[in-house]
Amino acid sequence: MDETRRDRDIEGRAHNARPRDGLGRPLPYGARGVERQPEGMVRDPLETVREAQRLLDAGMPFHAHEVFEDAWKSGPDAERELWRGLAQLAVGLTHAARGNATGGARLLRRGAAALEEFVTHADVSGSGSAPTPYRMRIGALNGWATELAARVEEPGAPVIDAAAEAPRLRTDG
């Protein structure tokens, strides 16, 4: 690859072909990176949540963000804010794990705010009296994001481990 020119996909759009590490950072051409998520993949919502959880558990929140982004772009309008908020949580975790505490905290809070409309009484109280989207723990995710944002912003806070801090997305997972 000629490193002085921008990478392009087959349709001529900018597309970085450099390999990436588990946190989505570009590596030098020719380096061994992690497998990237295919872009534009349409999954059903439960498959989206399962794949994102697998990636979060593996310490690859950047890649989980890409899975959520696909759902955000391809899902029904009524769910766009749900998937966008989840993508922001994942990228907030990515930034925090890269050592960018300010950006990580900002995105974690922004993602939590985007999910607010999906928090139900049952999700907060644990009563189970109302369904949550795809049995996701939206209230618990908001609490996780708020707590993590505050913790990474503390002066002298260590850089976090993405896999160790990965949230549980579903009540049964």
Walk me through what this model shows:
Helices cover 50% and strands 0% of the residues. The protein has helices at 45-57, 61-74, 80-98, 101-115, 121-125, 138-153, 162-165. The chain starts with 44 loop residues before the first helix and ends in an 8-residue tail after the last helix. The radius of gyration is 17 Å and the shape is globular. The model has no long low-confidence stretch (mean pLDDT 86). It contains seven helices and no strands. With 173 residues, it is an all-alpha fold. Helix 1 runs antiparallel to helix 2 and helix 2 packs antiparallel against helix 3 (80-98).
Write a concise synopsis of the structure shown.
The chain has seven helices and no strands. By secondary structure, the chain is mainly alpha-helical. The longest helix has 19 residues, at 80-98.
Largest sheet: none
Percent of residues in β-strands = under 5%
Mean pLDDT: 86
Distance between the termini: 42 Å
Radius of gyration, whole Å: 17 Å
Low-pLDDT parts are none
Order of helices and strands: HHHHHHH
Number of strands: 0
What is the count of helical runs? 7
Helix % is: 40-55%
Shape: globular
Look at the helices and sheets and give the structural class: mainly alpha
Please specify the SSE layout and strand pairing:
Layout: H1 45-57, H2 61-74, H3 80-98, H4 101-115, H5 121-125, H6 138-153, H7 162-165
Helix pairs in contact: 1-2, 2-3, 3-4, 4-6
